[in-house]
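In response to reviewer comment 3 from the previous cycle, which asked for concrete evidence that the modeling workflow produces usable outputs, we include below a single protein chain processed end to end. The sequence was submitted unchanged, and the resulting structure tokens are shown without manual editing.
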Amino acid sequence: MLHSTLFDPLTYFNPFSSFSLVWEFIFFGVHLFLKGSHFAMWSMLSRILLVKWLFFLFSFFFSSFLSC
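The workflow returned the following structure tokens.
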């Protein structure tokens, strides 16, 4: 079950899932440690969150369109 969760894009890109938040905190913690710049972290965070929200909305509407 964990294997299917790791590679499920709807689970990862869902902004409300705790699985997604854990990976974001790990990724941005490492990024902050390596870069040492708060501005670089927040600009990258905003870009990735924007892409995640757009992908989530697109997949939600596309799946609801297919189920009609």
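The chain has a mean pLDDT of 66. We consider this sufficient to address the reviewer's concern, and the full set will be provided in the supplementary archive.
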